[in-house]
Known about the structure:
Blueprint: H1 2-23, H2 33-45, H3 48-58, H4 65-88, H5 90-93, H6 97-119
Amino acid sequence: MRIATMLAQQIDGFIKFVQENYENKHKSYIENPDKLYQVRLLIEEFKFQLNAAELCRINRFSWNERYTNLLVDDVKKGLDVIEEYVHRNYDDLFILTGRLHTLRSLCSSFQFQFEKSRDC
């Protein structure tokens, strides 16, 4: 339950980070804002904001394992695409790798916890 809430908070932080860097183009480290805009579109396409809100909502008071796993799988699919795009455009989007690594780590630890509870 706590890992799902932490994942939702990190997703919100990632979305805000991308939006702030795109809106403040002149203060950003990214030279080509079109590539950051593409990441923003991918975030919208994979509904990261909706998934983060749902993760917070369903895990606020009780643990809903099945629905949480579905949402985390959706986040993983989006992360795969965004990580591939960032990897191909690493020179311009290097600043996103730390946030992506944090999200991937939370997703993988969540998956490990799910497999562990299923084996018991």
